[in-house]
From TrEMBL, chain A:
Function recorded in the entry: Required for the assembly of mature ribosomes and ribosome biogenesis. Together with EFL1, triggers the GTP-dependent release of EIF6 from 60S pre-ribosomes in the cytoplasm, thereby activating ribosomes for translation competence by allowing 80S ribosome assembly and facilitating EIF6 recycling to the nucleus, where it is required for 60S rRNA processing and nuclear export. Required for normal levels of protein synthesis. May play a role in cellular stress resistance. May play a role in cellular response to DNA damage. May play a role in cell proliferation.
Organism: Electrophorus voltai
UniProt xrefs under SUPFAM superfamilies: FYSH domain, Hypothetical protein AF0491, middle domain
Description of how the protein assembles with itself and partners: Associates with the 60S ribosomal subunit.
Localization per Swiss-Prot or TrEMBL: Cytoplasm, Cytoskeleton, Spindle; Nucleus, Nucleolus; Nucleus, Nucleoplasm
Name under which the protein is recorded: Ribosome maturation protein SBDS
UniProtKB/TrEMBL annotation, chain B:
Alphabetical UniProt keywords: GTP-binding, Hydrolase, Nucleotide-binding, Ribosome biogenesis
InterPro entries (UniProt xref): EFG_II, EFG_III/V, EFG_V-like, EFL1, P-loop_NTPase, Ribosomal_Su5_D2-typ_SF, Ribsml_uS5_D2-typ_fold_subgr, T_Tr_GTP-bd_dom
Organism: Electrophorus electricus
Domain Tr-type G: 1-314
Protein name stated in the entry: Elongation factor-like 1
Region spans: Disordered: 376-420, 828-863
Length: 250, 1036
């Protein structure tokens, strides 16, 4: 390279390509890395911070610009900025490493938060802190799946965590009232679902206060509703049976 | 004293008049530990002032050490105050005199004035303590009298100070309670020593010397008389001439000029012998200390001063006894007669067997089991060995059972000799105590009285002895004294008995005593007044084990720490955090080290504790961010913003400009209109304060719904009635017309400071105030049945919404949701859509009572058709209500509420400015500032967000070099004025802030921090500037 030769090319760096197929044609736009997701979530409001150039290409890496005819045929407009916005909103793109990383991190924390909310230390009946759960999740090498809901994954994590630390789902406290004749029959069916029976009162009707695993709630509800044909009732006294207030260690 | 045999000490212990219990108090680095005297020594750092408290309590006298160069430092003031509060007599030692000579190179005369100044400073501190006490007493007397005759408004400016004699309080060399020393060179003297030397030499009475050696006196050489007025006549004061000059010339000869001949002359004139080796030593310091330690031996000086000036245990002051025995605000006279008789035993300090035993334990300290004398250097018998092995095996088995998965790093027992010989390493607690009366004998049965024990409440028969079966009296236990120790520095020597007036260690008490206690053979003995701690625990940190499976160990370790440290506190918070409170950063560090290495023996991590927030709405502000009135004409960007806002809401949600949100459930069966309103502050506070009452009401209503009744005491009913009236008085105005009677529910958790209001026309439901009303037959006639059945779903939805707000999922506070429309269309045909929505309802399966809502499901298949459709509809309604509440909340001006501490700071005038600096840096606000009567201290009251309080105490201490000490107590919730989602809208705001408003937004900062912690979405750009990213090539 001795003499600077001017070229009529504008070289782009840090390109993230967003593609969209419309009207049988493929369109691409050139964006900056790590910016498209911010635009889609609404955090980035300045279009110039997202687009490298307000041009629609058929192939960004080759520098082939899309033809005006094709554009107006496919999009019904020839306003490039408008088309760019459409492609930005609906096109497909390769998620960059940084974007993916933050997303996974966020999900990881979200899962830990859900687990911490739902679970207690069975010995103290007190919740674990989120940071402790996070550490425990790292210890069991839990990897977050981006395409599964965090709630679903949280339930999965609880199961796995049970093997390494003392953890269980916070019990639900229920009270149900059953008519006397159903009571005796149903009690045996309900027995495996109940964790702790706190009080039992059997005179005209069977009244029980008990703790159950929240996962069994639907099953139990169903059972009572169907078996008693609507005469029994279930009432949730508290969703989470946890110790309240601060405790001084002495 | 280090060489005194154990027998000798035991013999000495029996003579109470020959005992001095003293402690050494000093500021950090004033050389308090350089002594070799066997005393209770206390650390000088602020954070450990609790240790000082425990030491002071057990002593009769104290030696306060002050640096000759630095003078009175903050901690000196603190220890003087503590000595004062405990009524013990202090002695002053001015240490590091050599620095005046060698470092500062003062002339003897200058040194004299310097020393005078230091004495004045110390006396000034004592003086203020005295003055404030006199003023307090006087104020108490004034309030007692309280009959200001209008004619006699003669103000007594003397304030009673002159009337009270205080001369004995002050330090003065001629009183014999001041010594001058240089511990490093091993010399020290009091005036008395020089007085003796010179009275022999010059033939003047030593009493006269004692009086004149310190002060404005000089020696008239011709007349051989001591005259007054040295200063005015330009003569050297006696102290300089006779004392300081000699010391200075010695230093001059030995250290500065190293004049051999002169040294020899001096040595002979002093009549002491110095070894030839010392004379030839290259380091002059060696020679110096050789001479000084013979001429003015430090230990003797201090010892003789201690013996002469400090009281023996037998001379314990009556008023100190009273102060010790009267708990809290109770006066001594009000104690039972039997208890008052014990005072005699105190004063006598008798060691007879009949005398009641009174022992006070001021702290528990942990000792490694190997350091205990019974475990030391004694070959174990075969039997013991096997016993221990068995024990160790058991413990190991337990441990393994407890955490099977965690790999135990402990040495495997499997018959390995090492483990069994070493024995289980355990912490033993030894109680640090003093016998005030009677004899502590091994095997004696005693009562252990906790700090809250009250002799008046214990209705024990006269002459009840602890040998009897332990009576069940609160805060009282009986046990046997098992092990008594003599404390010799780190060493413990086992003793069989300890007579009155001695300090001792008691082993095996950890089960009975937490931190401090009183031990006595008489049940009538009152517990001693709690220790005065200068520092209260204020530094809060959250502690977690590195490995989550070690939680149990951590809890156990924290329990031990709590017992071992008088000033540390540990607690588990509702959030599950284990919080450790310590007096300061240095104290914290020590506590953590103790936890790691001694008590828990696990790796721990320390973090800032989680700070709670609340979310609320406020009335729309009248002015904008630049204090311009908000008018229609200025809103440049309002139109744009409104459009944006509309796009925020998904389909099926309509928000009208007044903030009414109308939302339809996904199956189009139910429609709900909700509006959020801010509650008045007073109402919020009222609701918050009456959570217990509301819970009772809710319970009643729950029962009532099942057709049963609950008995409520008339007192509670009265409380409910007044609560209702008060609430009504706070909810005034058109908007709140009979709002109180329309209250649908409280939330979150059914008792929180938020309201759900029934603003529907024609919908009647049982009132929340049912317990006040006479039971009436039949509910409102016009209520459609379906609505009544779904009532609880709406409540549950509200509870969910109130539990986690839209800003950062923190609970709401002071928000009222008014339900203004509610329609449920009966499902005429099995809608296809229902299936789709069923999936959604599935997700809410657990929601029915989330937040503790009364998710009551009646099994009757009435309502909408089909058994299965019912569940989903109620579930959908819960979700719909929740969403509607959230949108309604967002439609108003939302604000974050921060928890606030009130903070009381005591500071001297000179550091006031820096205190203000630290406060304002941390968003604190000063409420008041006043001067404490009789002192030069200011008391500043301020409020400070809890979120900003981490490290606050430490910072303020650092910046004011310990002269200000803050006290933090949670006080209230406060709305943060800035809108977390604020963007400039008016022209002025654009001018002032620019389009993006980059200036820091406090509320947004908090919101984002919480969201990030919880793993919620944070609206933040991954990369701020697209062009400024690093160009990534293949090989990064």
């Amino acid at each position: 390279m001795s003499i600077f030769t001017p070229t009529n090319q504008i070289r782009l760096t840090n390109v993230a390509v967003v593609r969209m197929k419309k009207g049988g044609k493929r369109f691409e736009i050139a964006c900056y890395k790590n910016k498209v997701m911010s635009w889609r979530s609404g955090a980035e409001k300045d279009l110039d911070e997202v687009l490298q150039t307000h041009t629609v290409f058929t192939n960004v890496s080759k520098g082939q610009v899309a033809k005006k005819d094709d554009l107006s045929k496919s999009f019904g407009t020839d306003d490039l900025t408008d088309i760019c916005k459409q492609i930005l909103a609906k096109g497909e793109l390769q998620v960059s490493d940084k974007e993916r990383q933050t997303q996974l991190e966020q999900m990881f924390r979200d899962i830990a938060t859900i687990v911490a909310e739902k679970c207690v230390n069975p010995e103290t009946k007190r919740p674990y802190t989120v940071s402790l759960i996070e550490r425990a999740m790292k210890d069991i090498h839990y990897s977050v799946k981006a395409n599964k809901s965090t709630k679903q994954q949280a339930l999965d994590v609880i199961r796995q965590l049970k093997e390494s630390i003392q953890i269980q789902r916070a019990h639900m406290r229920l009270r149900f009232v059953l008519p006397a004749k159903d009571g005796k029959r149903l009690k045996e069916k309900l027995r495996p679902l109940l964790k702790v029976v706190e009080s039992e009162d059997f005179d005209e009707q069977l009244e029980m206060v008990c703790l159950i695993d929240p996962g069994c709630f639907r099953e139990l509800d169903e059972l009572i509703r169907c078996e008693t044909k609507g005469k029994g009732s279930v009432e949730v006294l508290s969703l989470k049976d946890v110790e309240e207030g601060d405790e001084r260690l002495e | 004293m280090g060489h005194t045999s154990l027998e000798k000490i035991i013999a000495l212990q029996k003579k109470p008049s020959n005992i001095r219990n003293i402690c050494i108090l000093a500021h950090v680095d004033h050389g308090e530990t350089e002594y070799l005297v066997n005393l209770i020594d206390s650390p000088g750092h602020v954070d450990f002032s609790s240790e000082v408290s425990t030491a002071v309590r057990l002593c009769d006298g104290a030696i306060v050490v002050v640096d000759a160069v630095e003078g009175v430092c903050p901690q000196t003031q603190v220890v003087l105050r503590q000595a004062w509060l405990e009524n013990i007599r202090p002695l002053l030692v001015i240490n590091k005199m050599d620095r005046l000579i060698v470092e500062l190179k003062l002339s003897p005369l200058e040194a004299y004035t310097h020393l005078q100044k230091i004495l004045e400073q110390v006396n000034a501190v004592t003086g203020t303590l005295f003055a404030s006490k006199v003023l307090e007493e006087r104020a108490a007397k004034d309030t007692e009298e309280q009959q200001p005759a209008p004619g006699e408004q003669v103000y007594d400016w003397s304030a009673g100070l002159e009337e009270t004699d205080d001369s004995h309080l002050y330090f003065s060399p001629d009183q014999g309670n001041v010594a001058f020393a240089s511990a490093i060179d091993g010399w020290g003297f009091s005036i008395r020593m020089f007085a003796q030397i010179y009275s022999q030499k010059m033939g003047i009475r030593s009493e006269l010397f004692l009086k004149t050696l310190w002060g404005d006196f000089y020696l008239n050489a011709k007349a051989k008389k001591i005259m007054k007025g040295a200063q005015s006549k330009g003569k050297k004061p006696l102290f300089v001439q006779l004392v300081l000059d000699n010391i200075w010339s010695l230093y001059d000869a030995v250290v500065t000029r190293r004049d051999k001949e002169k040294v020899d002359k001096m040595v002979t004139s002093l009549g002491i012998k110095v070894m030839a080796r010392d004379l030839r030593h290259a380091d002059p310091k060696v020679l110096l200390s050789a001479i000084c330690s013979q001429w003015l031996p430090l230990s003797q000086t201090v010892l003789s001063m201690v013996c002469e000036k400090l009281p023996a245990p037998t001379d314990i002051a009556a008023e100190r006894v009273e102060a010790l025995m009267s708990v809290g605000a109770r006066r001594f006279d009000s104690l039972p007669e039997e208890t008052q008789q014990l005072k005699k035993a105190f004063l006598e300090c008798a060691s007879e067997d009949e005398a009641p035993v009174i022992i006070f334990v001021s702290k528990m300290f942990a000792v490694d089991s190997r350091a205990l004398p019974e475990n030391k250097q004694r070959p174990l018998t075969q039997e013991e060995l096997s016993q221990r092995r068995e024990l160790a095996r058991q413990r190991h088995a337990e441990r393994q059972a407890a955490n099977q998965s965690s790999e135990s790093t402990e040495t495997a027992i499997g018959g390995s000799a090492k483990a069994s010989v070493e024995g289980p390493r355990r912490e033993h607690f030894v109680a640090f105590a003093r016998v005030y009366s009677g004899v502590a004998r091994r095997g004696r049965k005693v009562f252990v009285l906790g700090p809250k024990y009250d002799p008046a409440l214990a209705t024990l028969p006269r002459g009840c002895f602890p040998d009897d079966a332990p009576p069940s009296v609160p805060h009282m236990a009986s046990c046997t004294l098992e092990r008594l120790y003599l404390l010799m520095g780190r060493e413990l020597e086992e003793l069989d008995e300890v007579p009155a007036g001695n300090v001792l260690g008691i082993g095996g008490m950890e089960e009975f005593i937490l931190k401090s206690a009183t031990i006595s053979t008489s049940a009538a003995c009152p517990p001693f007044t709690p220790l005065n701690f200068e520092a209260t625990p204020i530094v809060r940190v959250a502690i977690e084990p590195k490995h989550p499976s070690e939680m149990q160990k951590l809890v156990q370790g924290m329990r031990l720490l709590n017992q071992a440290d008088p000033c540390a506190e540990v607690l588990i918070q509702e959030s599950g955090e284990h919080v450790l409170l310590t007096a300061g950063e240095v104290h914290l560090q020590r506590c953590l080290d103790d936890l790691r290495e001694r008590f828990a023996r696990i790796e721990i991590s320390v973090s800032e504790p989680i700070v709670p927030f609340r979310e609320t709405v406020i009335r729309p502000p009248k002015v904008d961010m630049v204090n311009e009135e908000l008018g229609r004409q200025q809103k440049v960007a309002v139109a744009r913003q409104a459009r944006e806002e509309q796009s925020r809401y998904p389909e099926g949600v309509q928000v009208d400009p007044s903030g009414l949100v109308v939302l339809t459930t996904p199956n189009k069966l139910a429609t709900l209109g909700v509006r959020a309103l801010p509650l008045p502050d007073e109402a919020t506070r009222l609701l918050e304060g009456n959570a217990e009452l509301i819970r009772t009401m809710e319970q009643f209503n729950l029962m009532a719904r099942e057709g049963r009744t609950m008995e409520i005491s008339p007192k509670t009913l009265e409380a409910v009635r007044s609560f209702r009236a008060e609430l009504a008085s706070h909810l005034q105005g058109r908007r709140w017309r009979d709002a109180v009677d329309r209250i649908w529910a409280f939330g979150p958790r059914r008792c929180g400071p938020n309201l759900l209001l029934n603003s529907l026309e024609g919908y009647c439901r049982p009132s929340v105030w049912q317990c006040l009303e006479a039971p009436q037959g039949g509910a409102g006639p016009a209520t459609p049945l379906t609505l009544r059945d779904l009532d609880s779903s709406v409540v549950s939805g509200f509870q969910l919404a109130a539990l986690a707000g839209p800003m950062c999922e923190e609970p709401l506070m002071g928000v009222c949701f008014a339900v203004e429309s509610w329609e449920v269309r009966p499902a005429s045909r099995p809608d296809r859509q229902e299936l789709g929505s069923a999936a959604r309802a599935e997700e809410e399966a657990e929601a029915p009572a989330a937040g503790g809502g009364p998710g009551r499901r009646r099994g009757d298949a009435a309502g909408s058709g089909g058994g299965d459709c019912y569940g989903p509809l109620s579930g959908q309604l819960i979700a719909a209500t929740k969403e509607a509440c959230r949108y309604a909340f967002q439609a108003k001006s939302q604000r974050l509420m921060a928890a606030m501490y009130t903070c009381e700071i005591m500071a001297t005038a000179e550091v006031l400015g820096r205190v203000y600096g630290v406060l304002s840096k941390r968003e604190g606000r000063v409420l008041s500032e006043e001067m404490k009567e009789g002192t030069d201290m200011f008391i500043i009251t301020a409020v400070l967000p809890v979120a900003e309080s981490f490290g606050f105490a430490d910072e303020i201490r650092k910046r004011t070099s310990g002269l200000a000490s803050p006290q933090l107590v949670f006080s209230h919730w406060e709305v943060i004025p800035s809108d977390p989602f604020w963007v400039p809208t008016t022209e002025e705001e654009y001018l002032h802030f620019g389009e993006k408003a980059d200036s820091a937004n406090q509320a947004l900062k908090y919101v984002n921090a919480v969201r990030r912690r919880k793993g919620l979405y944070v609206e933040e750009k991954l990369v701020e500037h697209a062009e400024k990213q690093r160009t990534l090539s293949k090989n990064k």
